[in-house]
Amino acid sequence: MEELDISTENCIIEQDGHVLIVTLNRPEAKNAFTPAMLLGMYRAWRLLDQEEDLYCAILTANGNTFCAGMDLKAGPDGQEANEEFLAVMAEVPNVHWQALLRDNLPSKPILLAVEGYALAGGTEILQGTDIRIAAEDAVFGVTEVARGLYPMGGSTIRLRRQIPYCIAAEMLLCGEHMSAQRALECGLINRIVQPGEALTTARGMARRICQNGPLAVQAVTCSLREHQENMAEESAMVASDALAGPVFASADAREGMQAFKEKRPPRFTGE
Prior knowledge:
Keywords: Lipid metabolism, Lyase
Strand content: 15-25%
Radius of gyration: 19 Å
InterPro entries: ClpP/crotonase-like_dom_sf (IPR029045), Enoyl-CoA_hydra/iso (IPR001753), Enoyl-CoA_hydra_C (IPR014748)
Helix content: 40-55%
CATH superfamily of the largest domain: 2-enoyl-CoA Hydratase, Chain A, domain 1
Number of domains: 2
GO molecular function: lyase activity
Family: Belongs to the enoyl-CoA hydratase/isomerase family.
CATH architecture of the largest domain: Alpha-Beta Complex
Number of helices: 11
Protein name: Crotonase/enoyl-CoA hydratase family protein
CATH class of the largest domain: Alpha Beta
Order of helices and strands: EEEHEEHHEEHEEHHEHEHHHH
Largest sheet: 7 strands, mixed
Strand order of the largest sheet: 1-2-3-4-6-8-11
């Protein structure tokens, strides 16, 4: 596995074959956000979009807490931004929201591997991922109201679309913690594993995704993200067909059908 030069002090970015692994790296402060962490995540998601050899990504963290969100000890102004982050923000004003998967999501799937607490921004960024693995002792919660704050990462919009409305309302209005078991029951996460196994499980699922046709995976991801329940079904079907056309016309589609006929694993090239 290779660490990439776009890594920052608080965000390690590595490539393992076709998988990008993004690791929050501020365990001494419960992986609370810093400008350096946000810059690393922003770079990672844009690389995932641009690099054809990357098929998916995993977001995880070092330490026994996934992410505590904003650094409350730093106060309302947060950590002082370095010159590099300020330079990027001058060109990309919403760089922080892109980093936190609120705006401009990558066109490829992102898996999440959570150990420990994922609170406030830690649960907000979860909602921008596609497949979510959590240790059985993981804890979730959109806790901003308990601090007199508003969850600006998109939870008031996305959470009610991903889980039942009344459960989203309870999470957002009460600001209480949610166990991994409860998160599984309401569909916030995909599966629970033993502590210490979240990343290993996510890696296995990422390998399975990478065995599939990359163009097909990207098109399905796009449809899942963009053709939501607020679209009329007829309009959504038309939009879905537009994504399907190029996939069926691709060399990968022909290879997949030929491999099935010849009873062998397909050799996809992304073309």
